[in-house]
Amino acid sequence: MPSTKQHGTASPANEAIGGIPTIHYLDFASRGRGQVVRLMWEDAGIAYTDIRYSFEEYPEHKKTTIAEKNPTTTIPIVEINGKILTQSYAILRHFARQLGKYDGETEEEKYWADAMCDIAVDWRTQFVSAFFNPNKEETYPKHQQTERIRFLKAFETHLTRHELSLQGPYVVGKTFTYADMVIYQILHDENLTQDGMKGLQEYPRLKQLADAVESRPNVKAFLESDRYLG
Fold first, then answer.
1. Predicted local confidence at residue 40, as pLDDT
2. DSSP letters spanning 72-129
3. Computed from CA positions of residues 82, 36, 180, 149, in that sequence, does the dihedral angle turn out positive or negative?
4. Would you tell me how many other CB atoms lie within 10 Å of the CB of residue 220?
5. Is residue 172 within 8 Å of residue 165, measured between CB atoms?
6. CB 70 within 8 A of CB 84
7. What is the pTM assigned to this prediction?
8. What is the pLDDT of residues 15-60, one digit of tens each?
């Protein structure tokens, strides 16, 4: 059976988004695309219901529960106020607009957040392909030495050259956006933020971004809580 847990107490942020959301996702520690959604909710102080499916039971639920809610049978799925939301990055932008933050203020800021998010999405596609490959012992080390380095260097370059990012510590200077969470999550999932950010020592601007995310009061509290599963 999937595990179901309630987190947090309803807040004004819950009112802003129309209620207490429920997320359906894999029981994949604090990792993956679903975790980015949880991270936004944690930062915003949103109470939510967390339904997790083990890897063993998910294939059966994918054919029933998930298929009934989303014809593409992909997760995460969010349910709120009778509505079903799919596609993780669209979900993030949707809640950002409802909350009136996390999305940048000017059109230029919104564009830059979207562009940097898209780069992280491309990286995650490569990561998932290598990490969940049947030949992981060969494909993931190769990924770590090729594609991962390419994306790390690309992000470091963008963050140290773009006029908005130069104002740091975030993608859009001092404004925290959903793109920062998306980038942080792929860094985390590639095990680059653990052990004192050891994996980011050669990328100081990316490390600055990751440090800034982890230093946010609600994120810091989450990472130090039993809700954070590694």
1. 98
2. T--S-EEEETTEEEE-HHHHHHHHHHHHT-BS-SSHHHHHHHHHHHHHHHHHHHHHHH
3. negative
4. 12
5. yes
6. yes
7. 0.97
8. 999 999 999 999 999 999 999 999 999 999 999 999 999 999 999 9
